[in-house]
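Example record used in the benchmark description.
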Amino acid sequence: MKGDYKGKLIGGGLGWLAGGPLGTALGAVIGHVYDTVELKSPKDPYRVLGLDGSATIEEIKKRYLELSAKYHPDKVSHLGKELIDLAHRKFVEVSKAYEEVRREKGF
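Model output (structure tokens):
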């Protein structure tokens, strides 16, 4: 899967600073590495959901429903391919975070 927006932005900026075809290639590689490292780094599930550790079960469920509706593949099908891919990754990330919090809280 291609890198997300942040990696492209960082890679493109560095490629522009270096200039020429070599700079463009270097920017693409750096952007890809940034995306790969960021996607593999463990994230706090509460942070992914935009909550703190003291959130109630009701708050957690409500926030999950809001985020899953926002990033659901059916809701973003009208957007371009790159944004659909980004929304899909975010949807999966939110779902995993919710499951982790749900197991931790025991509901």
